[in-house]
Write a structure and sequence with these properties.
933 residues, alpha/beta, single chain, 9-stranded mixed β-sheet, 42% helix, binds ligand C2E, binds calcium ion, disordered N terminus
């Protein structure tokens, strides 16, 4: 790929997007796209249309900001923008739904899209989507487990009921679900809702993401649907979402104010500013100093800013640092701290705003038997230490620096710390020890302020959203800085990418929907960049670096979700992601799908393998549930194509999957050559398999030394690859479910071969040609039909044919297999069991399957060669077992006279092997003429 100097042209689409965005926002009235649309609109403009609006106060409430309700925006859309003649019907949602079924309502403003409703209604593209919650105004629920044994009230005909049932089922929770007409009456109990705000709950749990809400229209109006979708697209989806978020905010604010006591309300009224102090030590997890503008940014500043804004008070940021004595600092009102028993004596805490990890740090290769643990005096870590360790193992230090010194000098062997910035992973083993909740802390005498802020946080602030947003902002900044740095290296291409990035960032900024931003860049569960970023990364080759392309895929992860529920699955992913973030540069680790991660890792191969191999010492949940992953690794070069790099890594990953448990495969040169060959073979197999043909290996009667049959063995000969043996292509064909093409081709050629020999009078006595049929072919419904068709086509009796099956039939539906075998036997065909060995379960199959012949695997002869005595015992026992069942025996792989003599003496009926005849084409040697070998 050559670089296009005119890099601005790359930005053109983005700029155009901007223009479109703004133009559409400011034009009035819907402009039909073409003549057809114009006609459709005209047609409907002449009709009376009834618009059903939900009369819940949430939809009717007018915003103080623009004096509009959500319903007003709907009316505006249909009446004003589309210019339709709509009459409005306001009612409860369920009544509207009934009325739409009775043709009294044509359009329902806001309805959850659902398969069941599709018969009677059509849905617009989505208008809005949110989550579903179980909430309560009277009871406290914090986790799914709190729903155990409870009654949960659900609005009648609520689509989300199914969501709830599924989630409860998956989490092994038994609750009683009760359908009621009016949820408001039950809001002190537990209720299911997609819009918790309107119930002003005190607590709740999120059940799942909701499906999409859309505009529902009756089938008769279907021509209007594309027009409604266009209207949503160009303008009204944004307007509706904007209105919904306005109303939500206002309701939240009202809920907040009404939750304040009189005393709190008047305190808040007089409150002018709050002084907040940041603890420097926590930097990076909770906040950071921006490299772009030097401001302090991140989760804490964002939360603080929002608190200040929503409470209407000024927030001053102080930076005293923190020591336990620091609490005496008069001017500080709020600290960001973890709650400890010690601190609770003079501080009062809000609920948790964030959890930060505490790590256990050890010098590499320390002996942990006699561990001495260190922590900083008065810190949360020291409190954790006291709960986990025996007291005389603990040493407390007054400063962080002295603690690190003690670790390095061996005075302590383990250190608990939330700050690992100064510690290099090369020297230390760092692993997560515990998560530590962080809160806002106030002086005891400021309890009133704490209570107000706590209420503010619980009523007004979507903590999860703020946190995710802050994380995205940081990663944007990192990305920007990264491209900026490279720019200094005079790489022109970066400039355009930086520009695109900047444009992207500012484009995102004007999108008010935060969830959209979230989706765009970072996956909230893993906090790793997602597939979108990865694709971006692939196209921006500038960021390409040397290193290893690594693909990680969990083994049997679906089972975890199925057996333990998605919550556990999510926790496992979160834990593993954290492990990735901690050990590698998180900018280059991408979560591609549910349980699949891609990474570009600039470390040594052995180091990478070591880190990954050690995953279960960090990921306790994975260890607990016995979850492993498979990994594919490919060495990428600076200029390589990233898509290709990952293609090879992916192939290697699939190879690794074949081994159970944690495993990895490195796509080295040999592997890739092999894979390329495999691809070429697959290409042949996917075609008409003209290149596939049979060779025949004679089968000899050991009593008479006469050829009494042959086995047809497949070969594949290609112009580019030369001769390909079954070892290479049979497995591949089975894997891709195309083995029947080979089996049928060989069967047909074999039958045609018999016909030709018969025509030439070359078959005089007994003769059977055996064909290998894979179990996969056996599972096909057309097997018997195809074989009898070929026999018919060439007018060959089934008595010339033998079909070889292997013990892998054990793995399938035996009833079906036996049915088909009997059908083949009806045609005169005989069945033999191939690859019979000593130690296998195959012996159990003998009485079950309708067999005539058993073929002894070459490995039995190998046994005989290794130990004549043992081999003879095994052979003779097996022979007597099989003779008792009245079956004939063929010994395969005879290579020496000694073997032949032994088999003859043992009473084996037939033999096959290089000694008696190699597999060859008929033309090469007339091996199949009846005669003596
Ligand atoms: P198999 O059915 O056990 O076939 C016998 C294999 O042993 C053949 O290998 C044959 O060439 C080899 N062989 C014969 N005599 C000797 C000997 O004295 N010493 C040694 N070392 N080997 C001997 P081939 O042709 O490479 O086939 C390998 C396997 O591929 C077959 O094992 C069979 O499982 C499969 N296969 C071959 N053709 C077909 C086919 O048309 N359909 C299906 N489904 N599988 C096939
Ligand atoms: Ca065979
Ligand atoms: Ca065999």
């Amino acid at each position: 790929m050559k670089f296009n100097k005119n890099s601005y042209s790359k930005n053109l689409p983005v700029i155009t997007l901007f223009f479109l965005f703004f133009t559409f926002s400011f034009c009035d009235g819907y402009i039909p796209k073409d003549e057809d649309e114009r006609e459709t609109i005209e047609r409907f403009r002449g009709k009376k249309i009834t618009l059903g609006l939900n009369n819940r106060s949430f939809y009717e409430k007018r915003s103080k900001y623009n004096n509009k309700s959500i319903n007003d925006v709907f009316i505006e859309l249909f009446n004003g923008y589309l210019g339709l003649d709509v009459s409005v019907k306001r009612d409860s949602f369920s009544t509207l739904l009934n009325k739409s079924e009775d043709d009294e309502v044509d359009i329902i403003s806001f309805i959850t899209e659902h398969e069941k409703r599709r018969g009677s209604l059509l849905f617009s593209s989505s208008v809005y989507s949110d989550a579903v919650y179980v909430v309560s105004s009277g009871k406290k629920i914090y986790s799914m487990e709190d729903l155990q044994g409870e009654k949960i009230y659900v609005a009648s005909r609520d689509i989300y009921r199914k969501f709830l049932e599924r989630v409860l089922f998956n989490s092994n929770i038994q609750s009683e679900i009760i359908e009621v007409d009016n949820l408001d009456r039950y809001k002190d109990e537990l209720i299911l809702t997609g819009n918790p705000l309107i119930f002003n709950p005190v607590s709740g749990v999120k059940i799942s993401n909701s499906s999409k809400s859309a505009i529902g229209i009756r089938n008769e109006l279907k021509d209007l649907l594309p027009i409604i979708n266009n209207a949503l697209e160009s303008r009204y989806r944004d307007l509706l979402n904007h209105q919904i978020s306005l109303i939500k905010k206002e309701i939240a604010l009202e809920n907040f104010y009404s939750s304040l006591t009189e005393e709190e309300a008047s305190y808040l009224k007089d409150l002018k500013y709050i002084n907040i102090n940041y603890n420097k030590e926590l930097e990076s997890d909770l906040y950071y100093r921006s490299k772009l503008d030097g401001d302090i940014k991140g989760i804490v500043p964002d939360i603080v800013e929002i608190i200040g804004r929503t409470l209407g008070v000024k927030v001053n940021e102080l930076n005293y640092g923190y020591s336990e004595e620091g609490t005496k600092e008069e001017s500080v009102d709020v600290y960001i701290l973890s709650k400890t028993m010690e601190r609770s004596k003079y501080l009062t805490f809000t609920d948790t705003i964030y959890n930060i990890p505490v790590y256990s740090v050890m010098l590499k290769n320390t002996d942990h038997d006699n561990c001495i643990v260190g922590a900083v005096k008065g810190s949360v870590e020291s409190e954790i230490v006291e709960t986990y360790y025996i007291y005389d193992n603990v040493k407390i230090y007054s400063t962080y620096d002295s603690l690190v010194d003690a670790l390095n000098s061996g005075e302590v062997t383990e250190v608990l710390s939330k700050n690992t910035n100064l510690l290099s992973e090369k020297t230390y083993d760092i692993s997560l020890f515990e998560k530590m909740p962080v809160s806002l802390a106030f002086k005891i005498e400021d309890e009133l302020l704490r209570s107000i802020v706590d209420k503010g946080i619980s009523k007004l602030i979507l903590l999860e959203g703020v946190i995710n947003n802050s994380i995205i902002e940081k990663s944007n900044e990192d990305l920007y800085i990264l491209s900026e740095k490279n720019y200094k290296k005079r790489n022109v291409r970066i400039y355009s990418i930086g520009l695109i990035l900047l444009l992207l960032v500012s484009f995102i900024k004007i999108m008010s929907d935060r969830r959209y931003r979230l989706k765009l860049l970072k996956d909230p569960l893993s906090q790793l960049p997602n597939r979108v970023v990865f694709n971006e990364f692939c196209t921006n080759k500038s960021k390409s670096s040397e290193g290893y392309a690594v693909i990680i895929d969990f083994d049997n992860f679906k089972e975890i979700n199925d057996n333990y529920g998605h919550e556990v699955g999510d926790k496992i992913i979160a834990e593993f992601s954290e492990y990735l973030r901690k050990n590698f540069d998180a900018k280059f680790i991408f979560r591609i799908s549910g349980d699949e991660f891609y990474g570009v890792i600039d470390r040594g191969l052995q180091e990478i393998v070591d880190i990954f191999g050690n995953y279960d010492s960090f990921c306790s949940l994975m260890k607990k549930h016995g979850i492993s992953f498979s990994m594919g690794i490919y060495r990428k070069l600076l200029d390589s194509c990233i898509k290709d790099d990952f293609k090879y890594a992916d192939m290697a990953m699939f190879e690794a999957k074949k081994i159970s448990g944690f495993s990895y495969k490195i796509a080295d040169e040999e592997f890739i050559t092999g894979k390329k060959r495999e691809e070429q073979i697959l290409e042949i197999l996917n075609g008409e398999v003209r290149e596939v043909y049979p060779v025949f290996q004679p089968k000899v009667d050991l009593d008479t030394n006469e050829v009494v049959g042959a086995e047809a063995l497949a070969r594949c000969s290609s112009d580019t690859l030369g001769m390909i043996y079954p070892l290479e292509f049979i497995g591949l064909a089975e894997k891709y479910n195309i083995i029947h093409k080979i089996d049928y081709k060989i069967a047909r050629e074999s039958i045609r071969f018999i016909r030709e020999r018969l025509d030439n009078n070359e078959i005089k006595g007994e003769f059977r040609l055996s064909i290998n049929i894979s179990v996969k072919t056996f599972k096909r419904s057309d097997l018997v039909e195809v074989i009898s068709e070929y026999l018919e086509e060439y007018q060959v009796s089934g008595e010339y044919i033998e079909i070889e099956i292997t013990e892998s039939v054990l793995m399938s539906d035996m009833k079906d297999i036996i049915y088909k075998l009997n059908k083949l036997i009806e045609l005169g065909i005989q069945i033999s069991l191939d690859d019979f060995t000593a130690g296998h379960s195959a012996a159990g199959l003998l009485p079950i399957l309708p067999l005539s012949i058993v073929k002894f695997d070459k490995s039995l002869l190998d046994l005989f060669n290794k130990s004549e005595k043992k081999g003879k015992i095994v052979y003779l026992n097996l022979i007597s077992l099989i003779k008792d069942l009245n079956l004939k025996i063929v010994a395969e792989g005879i290579e020496s006279i000694k073997e032949l003599e032994f088999l003859k003496d043992s009473g084996v009926d037939y033999g096959q092997g290089y000694l008696l005849g190699r597999p060859e084409t008929y033309k090469d040697r007339k091996i199949l003429e009846i005669g003596t070998v």
